Amino acid sequence: MAQALRKDWDTYFMDIAFMVSTRSRCPRRHVGAVLVQGKKLLGTAYNGAPMGVPDCSEAGCMIVEEYEPAAGDGAGGMVKKQRCIRTIHAEQNLLLFTDRIDREGSTVYVTDQPCWTCANMLANSGIQEIVYHRAYPKDYEKVEALMKQRGLLFRRIEGYQPPADTEVQDGSAR
C-alpha cells in the first residue's frame, strides 16, 4: 500500500488559515490567520464585524471611498479605492484574542498579506515571522520595508494551492 505524501508545515498551517477564513461572513474577501509557536497552534481568527453586531451579510458593507496616488504613476495621478470599515481584519482579531506571552517569537500564517495597519500591529506584537499566500500590492513595498526594519521574517508561500471551497471568488480588495 502506497503511503500518502505528508504536507510540509507551511502548507499544513496555511491550509488551517484558509479553513478558518471560511467562518468569515464578508462578501468581499475571507481572510484567516493562525498563530503558531514552533509546531504548536496557539490561536485562530478571521475577518468580521465585532461580536454581537450585525455583519456585512446581514447589514451590508460599510463602504468608504478614498483617493490614493496611483501605483507607479509618475504623473501624480489618483485612484479611487473602496474599502469596508465594518470588518475587523483577521490579524487584528488574532491579536485581540491571543496573549502577548504566546506571541513572543511566534509565526503568523495569514491567507492574505497584511495591510499597512495590520502590519504595524503585527510588528509590535512580539511575533518573529509572517507567512502569507495572496499578495496585497497596494501596501506590499511599505509593509516589506517595515518588516525589514523590524528584523521580522516576511514571506509568501510560492506555489501554494488553497484547499477547495475556501476562497471567495469575486476577489475584491480588503
Automatic annotation (TrEMBL):
Recorded superkingdom: Bacteria
Key word Zinc present? yes
> Which co-factor is required?
Zn(2+)
Question: Do the record's keywords include Nucleotide-binding?
Answer: no
Q: Which PROSITE patterns match?
A: CYT_DCMP_DEAMINASES_1, CYT_DCMP_DEAMINASES_2
> Which GO terms of type biological process are on file?
pyrimidine nucleotide metabolic process
Q: Which residues bind Zn(2+)?
A: H89, C115, C118
GO cellular-component terms in the record?
A: cytoplasm
**Chain ranges of the CMP/dCMP-type deaminase domain:** 8-154
- Active-site residues are E91 (proton donor)
Q: Which InterPro entries match?
A: APOBEC/CMP_deaminase_Zn-bd, CMP_dCMP_dom, Cytidine_deaminase-like, dCMP_deaminase, dCMP_deaminase-rel, Deoxycytidylate_deaminase_dom
Q: Name one GO molecular function term.
A: zinc ion binding
* Sequence similarity: Belongs to the cytidine and deoxycytidylate deaminase family.
List the PANTHER family: DEOXYCYTIDYLATE DEAMINASE, DEOXYCYTIDYLATE DEAMINASE-RELATED
The name this protein goes by in its record: dCMP deaminase family protein
